[in-house]
Design brief:
With 538 residues, the chain is α/β, with parallel strands linked by helices. It contains 20 helices and eight strands.
């Protein structure tokens, strides 16, 4: 368990209820659970209690015949409110929820508004004429959830509450696409009727599985609205307590990623829905269909622009690095969604030691925390981690965290993630040359017999394949001493986006550029882009 349950040590039943809530959130919404783990450990259990109980309320409002749904939800609503008012519950989930409501003095009126909105949904299919009508429903059903937990994250003024609700509305719009095929089968359609009319569509067209320009436009319209809501909500990151900003930023980045997925799927999402970020019980993420051809086998990324991103927002450099860590987490997920098997990232170069101690000390602290907290997430995603770089100069906290990641993920195979830390390409080649020279002196190899494979087996990660696609963010157009051996035949894409804003959409675009290029590998005849073979290791 990731959270801290020390506050409930004197009540095993209460602790068990909080743990049950965490398990429910891991099962129901891995995305939301992962975002809350960025909060201080003591605050995670109350987040899970509120989220698990309201998610269960939403499930009851959604499942079964309409008459049964309404009766079941009315009973759940009455029991929940009665327990909150009495301050006692024996229900396995609601016990923790009632404790959270009492312990943090959360607003019962907000809870009542949420349950009232869900009750109306349970009573019968709702229809929304315009997008603003849909927004009012989303605010009542989901925005109230974020308003309820606002005191937990130190967001108390009215504007912060409003923007938290806007963020929740955007994320709820993602949920509509995730559940759309099931909702259509039950006679529900939450999309605005005016949009359908303007595009000449009927509800029956949505689940047909037949693509059309009108259906694609319907999806693009909702994606544009969702992104606009996220853009409005972005300011809220500076209106919550400092310890909670990273968690809110994780939700914003995650929302952007999900809208990227919807945009890539286009009208297919109407018939197929949107996969959860990691479905319950799954150990692999299903790749998105790519129209441009196969994905590159090995993508390397120079993650540039953290400090400029922070400067543009009037934030200290450390905030840029923290947001960059979130972007790395979403890059990993994006690579899995695009079917990429090898991903290498430039995390810290040998030249970065020249930065000031005032920047490096907190950077190393947050890097160590990020690596330690990533173990469970990377295990769940099936990612194997390898460290490429010098291993004797980092602080022990970082070195041990990287070594632990390597060890704990060594049996995973969905994605090979190579973290280049304290890495410099020239030094890597010099070290390999020194090792070969020592072999020559010892007589184990003759200088005239030395070939590329001999040098390759002395690289930091000998089995690392040649890079197919190199991406550098922030608009800079150089490789900066990054993997010179493996980049020999790589295609290069330079993206002007600063690293914390790089997401699935940008990765998808870079992969499309790669797929459209012709790679000759020194031959006369061009060929379509293809993954390069791994370098021989002897």
């Amino acid at each position: 368990m990731a959270g801290s349950y020390e506050a409930f040590a004197d009540s095993p039943e209460l602790r068990e209820s909080y743990e049950r809530c965490e398990q429910e959130m891991q099962r129901r919404s891995y995305w939301w659970w992962a975002a809350t783990t960025w909060a201080p450990a003591a605050f995670q259990p109350p987040f899970w209690a509120v989220s698990a109980v309201l998610a269960e309320a939403d499930r009851i409002a959604d499942e079964g015949p309409p008459a049964d749904r309404e009766r079941s939800f009315a009973r759940w609503r009455a029991e929940t409110l009665a327990e909150v008012r009495s301050g006692r519950s024996e229900h396995p989930l609601r016990r923790a929820f009632v404790d959270t409501m009492r312990r943090w003095d959360l607003d019962v009126a907000v809870l009542e508004e949420c349950l009232e909105t869900l009750h109306a949904d349970a009573a019968g299919p709702l229809a929304f004429a315009e997008f603003e009508d849909l927004r009012r429903y989303l605010r009542g059903a989901s925005g109230t959830t974020f308003e309820l937990i606002a005191p937990l994250i130190e967001a108390r003024d009215s504007e912060a509450m409003r923007l938290l609700s806007v963020l929740a509305e955007a994320l709820a719009l993602v949920d509509i696409f995730e559940d759309l095929p099931e909702d259509l089968a039950q006679g529900r359609c939450y999309l605005p009727r005016a949009d359908l009319r303007r595009l000449g569509l009927e509800i029956a067209h949505l689940g047909s599985g037949e693509g059309s320009e009108a259906l694609d436009e319907l999806v693009r319209l909702q994606v544009g609205r969702g992104r606009e809501l996220l853009a409005q909500a972005a300011l809220v990151t500076q209106m919550v307590g400092a310890e909670f900003r990273l968690g809110v930023q994780a939700l914003l980045v995650g929302g952007r990623l999900r809208f990227d997925e919807i945009e890539i799927l286009r009208s297919r999402v109407l018939a197929e829905g949107l996969d959860p970020m990691l479905p319950a019980g799954a150990t692999r993420i299903r790749p998105l269909p790519l129209n441009a051809g196969p994905a590159p086998g090995h993508v390397a990324v120079i993650m540039d622009g953290n400090r400029r991103w922070a400067e543009q927002r009037g934030l200290p450099a450390l905030e840029g690095h923290r947001s960059g860590e979130l972007a790395l987490g979403h890059l990993i997920y994006s690579a899995l969604r695009l079917g990429i098997r090898h991903l290498s990232v430039y995390a810290f170069s040998t030249e970065n030691w020249n930065r000031s101690l005032e920047e490096l000390a907190p950077l190393f602290d947050t890097m160590a925390d990020f690596l330690t907290e990533s173990v469970e997430r990377l295990q769940r995603l099936g990612v194997q981690v390898r460290w490429c770089g010098q291993r004797d100069r980092f602080d022990p906290s970082i070195a041990s965290a990287l070594a632990l990641l390597e060890s704990m993920t060594s049996n995973n195979s969905a994605l090979m993630l190579t973290i280049c830390a304290d890495y410099g390409g020239r030094e890597e080649l010099a070290a390999a040359a020194r090792a070969l020279a020592a072999e020559a002196v010892a007589g184990t190899v003759r200088p005239e017999d030395i070939g590329p494979a001999d040098l390759a087996r002395h690289l930091y990660v000998p089995e690392l394949p040649d890079v197919d696609l190199l991406i550098r963010t922030s608009g800079e157009q150089r490789i900066s001493n990054f993997l010179p051996w493996q980049l020999a035949y790589a295609e290069l894409v330079f993206d002007p986006v600063l690293w914390p804003d790089f997401g699935l959409s940008q990765l998808h675009n870079a992969v499309a550029v790669y797929a459209g290029r012709q790679r000759r590998f020194g031959a006369d005849l061009p060929g379509r882009a293809r993954p390069a073979k791994p370098a021989r290791t002897g």
